[in-house]
Design brief:
alpha+beta, 293 residues, three-stranded antiparallel sheet, 40% helix, Heat Shock Protein 90, 18% strand
Length: 293
């Protein structure tokens, strides 16, 4: 599936009656603000947001020479790293690769929140990655970084800051640094509404590690998310009374979601189901081995 078609399908899966479902590729790109007309010159073409979202590395580098995201896992070899991923892929591909990198190196925990089973680790990863990719200054050669250490995940990226200091849910005003990209991420379900990331990270980090994230706004934006060391276990007195750990029900609910999607389109591949449901390909294959690889 090409990236535009994939984005269309993701938008429809997120919002059943999404208008992109009935649009051609070009109509979708125009609707998303990715194809524009220069009112002075009269010329039309794909803008920078489109290239960053869909472009090949060569095209991106020709427009944004300093574009790069560096993901590092550093636990045993603290002087260098245990695992590393240097990305020059477009934003859509980078999102999936960074989510997988976090999943690979952190523990997963499922909780029942408001009657819905949620992978809190995945919810945290989603907010970290979308913030790192969307809210950065792409013109700067300063590389964006995502670093996983024994007790935390932290990121840093160059920013077009409006003010300097620590951000909390009570003292910040949402400001879209890259509004076209941010809106596109919301449409395909990679992010929620503007400003929700701060509130979500405070919520999910408290559940996952009984701690709070740190947002530092400056020329270099930094985010620190405390994470329990691998193998650590939450004690009952550290879990909010409204949050209950889920065990066997997780598979049952996930299986139902897979079946519902396959009823709509029996030709979905394992990788497509995994991306739409935000779970691993291995989980899809284990629950429903009949899906095509």
């Amino acid at each position: 599936m090409d990236l535009v078609g994939k984005a269309r399908q993701m938008a429809v899966n997120k919002f059943k009656d999404h208008p992109w479902g009935n649009m051609t590729d070009m109509e979708l790109l125009r609707s998303a603000g990715l194809y524009e007309k220069d009112m002075e010159s009269g010329k039309e073409g794909f803008n920078m947001a489109c290239i960053l979202l869909f472009g090949k590395p060569v095209a991106i580098q020709s427009c944004v020479p300093g574009y790069k995201t560096d993901a590092i896992y550093r636990v045993e070899n603290v002087d260098r790293y245990d695992d590393r991923l240097i990305l020059e892929n477009n934003l859509l591909e980078s999102y999936s690769l960074l989510i997988d990198f976090i999943k690979k190196h952190t523990d997963d925990k499922f909780f029942l929140i408001d009657g819905i089973n949620i992978s809190v680790r995945t919810a945290i990863a989603r907010e970290i990655v979308s913030n790192l990719l969307v809210h950065r200054e792409f013109k700067s050669a300063f590389p964006a970084k995502l670093i996983i250490e024994k007790d935390k995940i932290w990121t840093e990226n160059w920013s077009r800051t409006q003010w300097k200091g620590r951000i909390s849910p009570t003292n910040f005003t949402p400001y879209p640094k890259n509004p076209i990209i941010a809106k596109f991420f919301v449409n395909i379900g990679y992010a929620d509404s503007l400003g929700s990331g701060v509130r979500n990270l405070y919520k999910y980090t408290k559940i996952y590690s009984d701690a709070e994230p740190v947002f530092e706004e400056d020329d270099v934006f930094r985010l620190i998310v405390p994470m329990r060391p691998a193998g650590a276990v939450l004690t009952s007195d550290r879990i909010n009374s409204q949050v209950t750990k889920v065990t066997g029900k997780v598979t049952d609910v996930t299986e139902k979601r897979i079946i519902e999607l396959l009823k709509d389109n029996s030709r979905y591949k394992t990788v497509e189901l995994a991306e739409m449901l935000d779970i691993s390909r291995k989980t899809v294959s284990r629950i429903y081995p009949e899906t095509r690889q």
